[in-house]
Amino acid sequence: xxxxxxxxxxxxxxxxxxxxxxxxxxxxxxxxxxxxxxxxxxxxxxxxxxxxxxxxxxxxxxxxxxxxxxxxxxxxxxxxxxxxxxxxxxxxxxxxxxxxxxxxxxxxxxxxxxxxxxxxxxxxxxxxxxxxxxxxxxxxxxxxxxxxxxxxxxxxxxxxxxxxxxxxxxxxxxxxxxxxxxxxxxxxxxxxxxxxxxxxxxxxxxxxxxxxxxxxxxxxxxxxxxxxxxxxxxxxxxxxxxxxxxxxxxxxxxxxxxxxxxxxxxxxxxxxxxxxxxxxxxxxxxxxxxxxxxxxxxxxxxxxxxxxxxxxxxxxxxxxxxxxxxxxxxxxxxxxxxxxxxxxxxxxxxxxxxxxxxxxxxxxxxxxxxxxxxxxxxxxxxxxxxxxxxxxxxxxxxxxxxxxxxxxxxxxxxxxxxxxxxxxxxxxxxxxxxxxxxxxxxxxxxxxxx
Length: 450
Ligand SMILES: NC(=O)c1ccc[n+]([C@@H]2O[C@H](COP(=O)([O-])OP(=O)(O)OC[C@H]3O[C@@H](n4cnc5c(N)ncnc54)[C@H](OP(=O)(O)O)[C@@H]3O)[C@@H](O)[C@H]2O)c1
Fold this sequence. Notes:
The chain is an alpha/beta fold.
């Protein structure tokens, strides 16, 4: 059990309400925190009771006594990030406990908050500072933030969050790869034909129009979540499955990754969404082909498909193996084997093998060996933010993104040549032009139907 004070910058925001406070509640409920305090800071004149009551519905299975503990140990302070005097007032509220500063706000505020945390000695050498994604909006801005925060904190104090890395099945990718003898020997260009990373949502931009329009799908989810999935899937074996070793291997593979083809789209009606500019050219859909320039992956295309307003919500990684030489006289397998990792919504993984159709000689049918996490372990696996905050408490940085990883990922995205923006109907598989693009670039998406 740990003791900590959480200082949340952006305490009146959506992220704090829906994710951060429920995650702290879970840590209290699961007895991961012994003594704790929450100090919420933002500009609005609000009180902590209102903030907590709005957050309560997002914390599942709330026990009254534990929630009372949250209320008793929380305070709110009006603080404008740009007013130095507000930081001196914050200092008065801080005790001796370990401090976790959570910057749950837009990246343009990161440098000023960091600067004042250091100037007024609020963040000591043993305290941790958490930076929410997105970390900048391009390579230049990310480098600027990195440069600024590295002058005031050391890298060991800095936690750049990508909440995808806290998801159970994402944590399982490396574990699966490197603890199963049957996988790793096949994990290379000799046996794998291609790798597809599919990250689709059925939702529209909703209330996030103003933010989304400045970013688009490439910067909102591909630069971070999708490229992190790619890095975990493609990296070389680390010396150990922990800490810096994993981060170094991810950085190494991202350094050698580049986009070789792209198709982008925008759903019908996007320009009329609240907060979106009327002549917006922001993409809400992207299909990418990538290559990794190393000996393990030479000649193996990676594909990423991501977007909003599509058929369904799913995040999966499909590893398509090469075809076998067919020894059957009558019929050959219609497709090669797939190993699929399902990140959400139905966490698990499956191996698609070819088998004999019962009663028929030499007739082949693909069958699935399937692991469903919920079916095996029940529905109460930890939420990503709970796992991540626990890691911050314990000083474990392995699932937080290092400075170099973030910069390599921005470099990949900055170099994408978007070309024409194709429009597509909501609830479909993307722009009609995708068919020709798929053919040209050699991909038949697994599970994405129109
Ligand atoms: N929401 C999510 O689920 C989610 C998920 C992943 C990442 N993110 C990222 O996390 C960041 C925050 O997201 P959000 O959805 O919580 O945004 P939000 O609802 O707009 O909240 C922004 C917060 O920042 C505060 N703020 C802004 N300028 C300030 C200033 N000058 N001084 C003091 N406080 C200031 C706001 O306080 P006042 O309104 O009181 O001024 C508010 O508390 C964004 O970069 C977003 O992309 C969000």
